[in-house]
Design a protein that fits this description.
There is one protein chain. By secondary structure, this protein is of the alpha+beta class. It has an 8-stranded antiparallel barrel with strand order 1-2-3-4-5-8-9-10. Strand 1 and strand 2 form a beta hairpin. The longest helix has about 50 residues. The chain starts with a helix and ends with a helix.
């Protein structure tokens, strides 16, 4: 190979390396642009989730308000958009031949929370805009129970401002009055063994400090708000326990 051919070969090799370098740099730039686009999309989605007027993505959730003593409770199914349906019920051991299993006072309702705002990683705030009592018969007998209509659900009265707390909320951020309604709190035998964080969703009626809490696996209502496990919830044991509690209270 003479000097001229050698020079041409070197020039050709140099041009080829230059072209390959340009292609490689273009590839890096393209990949970088794609990564930046993906990151921007993720960021925008996160911002959108945090700024829209919806509750967490795993809603609807069933929330329960009860004291753990007696036969009453209020159930509320809360949807992501703030709408809800629910039922308040109170069992009474009084029975007759026509309703040998006892009497249940009941109130069915629906409503809507608005102005939903996520304040931080632990809680949302919202306002009760509508609460409507559904029209049901004044009295009826079904499956051995007598049902009586109640005019107002316990737990939502005087409620205007509500707070929804997320699981993992530190206990020190919650009031004692609110925590008193949480089963994991009042079932604790000693203060030293009480939970340090909320293990479920908790909704607080700020005016009354009433607490509604979620319990996985406790979907005991169908779509109409009626009990799916009435015989279990109002079993002979529950009636006996209710009567015992009433006797203790009277004494």
């Amino acid at each position: 190979m003479n000097r001229i051919q050698h020079k041409k070969w070197i020039d050709t090799l140099g041009i080829g390396l230059f072209i390959l370098t340009l292609l490689y740099m273009c590839g890096l730039t393209s990949n970088k642009d794609e990564i930046e686009i993906e990151q921007n999309v993720v960021t925008e989605d996160k911002i959108q989730q945090e700024t829209d007027n919806d509750l967490p993505a795993d809603f609807p959730k069933d929330l329960f308000f009860n004291s753990g003593v007696g036969g009453w409770r209020t159930y509320l199914r809360l949807n992501r958009d703030g709408s809800f349906t629910g039922e308040y019920s109170d069992f009474n051991a009084y029975a007759e031949d026509d309703f040998p299993k006892g009497t249940v006072t009941i109130c069915e309702f629906e409503g809507k929370f608005t102005n939903i705002q996520r304040m931080d990683q632990y809680h949302y705030t919202m306002s009760l805009e509508k609460l409507e009592i559904l029209d049901i018969p004044e009295m009826w007998i079904e499956n051995g129970y007598r049902f009586l209509k109640e005019d107002e659900p316990y737990g939502l009265e005087n409620g205007e401002n509500f707070t929804l707390y997320m699981p993992e909320t530190p206990i020190e951020q919650l009031s004692e009055d609110f925590l008193a309604w949480w089963p994991s709190w009042y079932y604790s035998e000693e203060e030293t063994v009480r939970p340090e964080k909320l293990s479920c969703y908790g909704m607080c009626n700020e005016a009354m400090q009433y607490g509604f809490f979620s319990y996985e696996g406790m979907d005991v209502f169908d779509g109409t708000g009626a009990f799916l496990s009435m015989d279990l919830f109002y079993s002979p044991f529950m009636r006996l326990l209710y009567t015992f509690c009433c006797l203790i209270y009277v004494r």
